[in-house]
Input
Amino acid sequence: MVCDGGCADVVTIRFVHTADWQLGMTRRYLSEEAQARFSQARVDAIRRIGLVAKEEGAAFIVVAGDVFESNQLETRTVRRTLEALSEVPVPVYLLPGNHDPLDAGSVYRSPTFESNRPANVFVLDGPSPRTPTAGVEVVGVPWMTKQALHDPVEAAVAALEPSPTVPRVLVAHGPVRDVLGGGGPSAIDVDKAEKAIADKRISYLALGDRHSTTPLGTSGQIYYSGSPEPTAYDEVDAGNVLVVDLGANGECAVHPRRVATWRFVINNFELDGLPDVESLGRWLDSQADKEKCVARLTFAGTISLSVDAALQDVLERHRDLFGAIELAAQSELIVRPDNDDFSDLALTGFAAETVAELRATASGASQQADVARAALALLVRLGGDAGGGR
Output
């Protein structure tokens, strides 16, 4: 065993469990400027986690896999990560996951990582127990390739002897097997993990892969910590780290701490007139920290071109304020020209005839109809701008 931190006799061990930092992650819907802020937030999360460890008096931190988005990263991302880690006041144990496995091209074996790794950072690159402080062991199960062929937890605990008086933290990464046996060959069997806890082979199973904080089993000693910054709309409780207390006799208490700064939100709107668009605008105005909020909006209803012009103005204004605003592909919003759309334009002659032809085309369901509706919508918006209406 290797003692990587200060070794003093303790009764209760406190540490921080986190996972799925996925540093270097990109999102297609973010502008270049928003992507830079999103990436910076993920690096800043390392410092916030270090602050949690300091405030809580934690002895060490375990990161249960997918520290990096991939093994193919800019050296800048690696250096900035290690610089942030150097500011963390306790030992940090990094587990290679399926995104950043410990293969021949691993980021953990790169010259950039090896030459810049601070003294408080350790890679869980094999099954040998580590001792960050006296009275506790940390065992990691690293991914060696992007595809695993067996339950990593089952294989690891089989090699561990029962440890009745020294708490042991097993750090692993991957999905769990469902009740029907689904999840693939690498899925973790929670029942077998619970047996390992009952047999005193492990005291706590720190998992990564699921980005939402999730307790598993019945012992209260198996957790997904979730990602410290959210990454998608369907994450139920992302943005936490877990502060874990382990007693020498196997007692365990887990407390989430919120560290996220970004949010992903979804909302559905029924739009049938200008008041509904104004309601949408008020909802967007009410969102806090807009620059760190990604919103996906779904619309349904039927509106005129002039109402659609007002809608586009609301969206355009808020896109400059939000991290991103996405319009869901399944939106069922129908835009239909009506006479009021053109009543203030005072069109005559060729212009009036052209609008009539476009309206006739727009009433269909062809690709040409879509083009016609877009042309009419642009005309209405330009007409509104020229008249000072918007």
